[in-house]
Predict the structure.
Amino acid sequence: MSDEGRRRREQVVRTTGILQNNLAVVVTAHLDLVNLNNDPVEVRVQVLNWGDAVTQTNPVSTLLDVTQMLPGNTRMAFNAAVPATFHYEVRLTVGCRNDGDRVMDENVLLTTYGRTAIGGGDVVGLTVLDSQFQTVRIDTCF
């Protein structure tokens, strides 16, 4: 099908950008997600493994990929193991609600930090607060 025959759509994704586990041990990427809306929203939370190569095209694997409805006024936690010396990225995509085509993500917050073990201490430099996530727009077509 030609580009003219496809509908183009823009997907809004919030990302940490690329982080690196610069330790010689596995780090747990801990994610805290909260929906402060009264209504449920569909969310997709991903932790992408960008490997340890100097140049890498596309992630080498997905360490976490969850899509689900998050009820209103609800917090959820996720964990993903990041191999030693590997680069990784945390992404959040919030689906649309019955509010036209407007994406309702203002009240869905995500914070992530690295731990040396689940329940262990934080790894300095691997904390990304919700306000530090970057918003990117990715063209998709269907």
